Amino acid sequence: MKNSIFKKLITILLATVFAAGLFGDALPAKADTAAKPSRAKLTVSAGADGKSVTLSIAKTKNAAGYKIMVKKPGSDKFVKLTTLKQDGMEKRTYTAKKLAAGEYVFKVRAYLKDGSKTVWGKYSKTAALTVGAASYAPNAATDVGYITKAKTTIETEYLIFDIDPGIYVVPQLAAKADGIFRAMEAVTGLRVVDGKYHDYKITVHVSRYEAQDTAAENSGPTGGSDDEIWIAPSDLFVESGYAFAHELGHAFNREFTGGFAGTVMDEGFATYTEMLLAEYLAEHDPNLGAILCSPDLVKYNMMLEDYEVMYDRSVEYWMKHADEAYDFCGNGAYGLGFRLMGYLDESFGDYTSWFETYDGLYTAKISLPEYDPIEGLSDKTVANLAIRALKTTYGDTVLDGFYSWMRTNEYGRFDSDDYYDKCNAFSAVTEYTVYPFYYWAENKTQIPGGELTEYSDLTVYIAPAEFYLREYKGEDTSDLVLNVSAGTTVELYDADGKLIDTVRTEQIPLTGVAYVKLVGKGETVFNITGYHIYDYIYH
After folding, report:
1. How confident is the model over 473-505, as pLDDT tens digits?
2. Got the DSSP string for 28-44?
3. CA-wise closest residue to 323 among 239, 380, 392, 248
4. Hey, is 517 helix, strand or coil?
5. How far apart, in whole angstroms, are the C-alpha atoms of residue 510 and residue 528?
6. Residues 6+ apart with CB under 8 A from 321
7. Is 307:406 a contact under the CB 8 Å cutoff?
8. Rounded Cα gap, residues 534 and 528, in angstroms
9. Fewer CB within 10 Å, N- or C-terminus of the chain?
């Protein structure tokens, strides 16, 4: 017993001596550890030459330099592209040149030197870009699309189309769909194959059951979930690609969250992603952007009619009572959610970080014994989970600053009228395929948007629209006429690509014409008449 007490006393004494540093460097103090760099944020943009990509890295805390990795077309591995050995604006931009055509995927991480040791930050989200502009024109002037005779499956690089019998399929469907898919990955920073709930390629179901009515063929209440979306026939890039892109946004969301996060969050994410998509394509691929946009639908989903009604109650209230948002939004909570996502993106640097947090909260909730899978979670429960996810991800005060931010962003980029004008801009578009737009009140064939189309040597393919009207809609197309503004120079070409004539008349017969070219720069009306049109103008 005495020996045990003596040993304890000796141990305490030695510990005190060492702690006091009485033995000099016998126990050297631990060296300070260099602060770890923050996670880098990367954006990529295509060069005008079609063979280069410029990478821009946001200023990153505690960074001395950056290591850029790339996954090249056809490869499944990342390799080092370059190392930027200094921070500073001019050192955070790099251009990769003379690239072969194909998709490139990039990621970057910051580093800091601590003596001989390198301290690394986390890799950024991946950013993908396809080099080499794709053409969305028909393969030839005689390629007018086709009508499915049976249940049809079309597999592209990223998607599987499940198309009902008797549905019109546009030329270059795969190129258009995959182009939008790649652009969506670029603007969201998400790679679908990395999604927690990703099992296989997303399936796109195309059916008349998704239409408002069989004559209209454009979407009613379509849907999107993990690995599946549902759209109507004209959403297959006939009227536009708007509904396709919107539902694809939902599928992107569900690949990472697994569950419904409420109307404000889910519809806000899809609508804001479409705005980013349109802005991105306007810069990088205007021809695909023209196929995507449906200005009237965009404006309807973004519209916010009375800001003061919104400001009268908290954001949390509207998230829990999304059905009441019609009091100030054109399409309910879409307009509110769209702006909330913009606020997160501009104020906190991204609008997708809440996915992982929400998924954890949602999964825990539905794992409880009292959860009823048939009834599901109530809207208010889902909203409360979304609010918790936002506060956990971005900080407890995240929603406190939304209205003050909103008051300075009521107009401009987040204003539906401004965005509507952007969707109507065709000045950078070089080729476009015009189609009839069959709606319950009208069935016009025109370039979508405003009354006038701004053009610069724009080629417009007519033959697919004539086939669609004649074979798909049963219209008499023998007397089709193109209507343009006075003074517009129009070149007419046949199915063999031969120039038929160059005209400057306002009404142009289209017999034997496969496509036209609006020569030079200007503004013009552009619509096709001469078949049975039902609308308020031609009745």
Report:
1. 999 999 999 999 999 999 999 988 899 999 999
2. PPPPPPPPPPPPP-EEE
3. 380
4. strand
5. 9
6. none
7. yes
8. 13
9. N
Q: Which amino acid is at 326?
A: Y
Tell me the average pLDDT across 349-353: 92
CA dihedral (15, 17, 19, 21) positive or negative? negative
Tokens of 302: 């973004």
> In this structure, what DSSP letter does residue 322 have?
G
* Count of CA atoms in the C-beta half-sphere (13 A) of 308: 0
CB 73 within 8 Å of CB 84? no
Contacts of residues 531-538 at CB distance under 8 Å and 24 or more positions apart, as own/partner, are 531/445, 531/469, 531/475, 531/476, 531/477, 531/479, 531/480, 532/475, 532/476, 533/442, 533/443, 533/444, 534/441, 534/442, 534/443, 535/441, 535/442, 535/443, 535/444, 536/441, 536/442
Quote the CA–CA distance of 226 and 237 in Å, as a whole number. 22
Is the dihedral angle over the CA atoms 248, 394, 396, 405 positive or is it negative?
Answer: negative
Dig out the tokens for 154 from the structure.
């079309």
Whose tokens are 């849907």? That residue is: 223
Pairwise CA distance, residues 195 & 177, whole Å: 20
Compute how many other C-beta atoms are within 10 angstroms of the C-beta atom of residue 225. 18
What is the rounded average pLDDT of the residues 182-192? 89
232 and 214 Cβ atoms separated by less than 8 Å:
no
**Chain centroid offset of residue 27 CA:** 57
